[in-house]
Design goal:
hydrolase activity, 3-stranded antiparallel beta sheet, mainly beta, 113 residues, hydrolase, YjdM, Phosphonoacetate hydrolase
Length: 113
């Protein structure tokens, strides 16, 4: 019976050791011994332009005029947005702006309201 730990991502019991790493043949995940904590638990903090931590559902205010790509519309300074949602990627805020619609914003151009 194997004494190796199961894969932290897919819980497969068929893990094997290759040098200093453990490998999972089912999902391809690699991890170092002793780092059995799932990577998903590490929360990424999203901060506004002034360093305040943003959370899902917060209200924000735009601090710079933002041109909407592919349109002649502009999101003006002081536009308030309610109920944001944080997402992964370069544009880390997903929201709906009245008069414009759904869009994604960079956190560096907003402040927490």
């Amino acid at each position: 019976m194997s004494t190796l730990p199961p894969c932290p991502q897919c819980q497969s019991p068929y893990t094997y050791q290759d040098g200093a790493l453990y490998l999972c043949p089912e999902c391809g995940h690699e991890w170092a011994p002793g780092s059995d904590a799932p990577e998903a638990e590490a929360q990424r903090l999203v901060r506004d332009a002034y360093g305040n931590v943003l959370n899902d559902g917060d209200s924000i205010t735009v601090i710079k005029d933002l041109k909407v790509k592919g349109s002649s519309l502009v999101v003006k300074v002081g536009t308030k947005v309610k109920g944001i949602r944080l997402v992964e990627g370069d544009h880390d805020i997903d929201c709906r702006i009245e008069g414009i619609g759904a869009m994604q914003l960079k956190s560096e151009f907003v402040k927490k309201a």
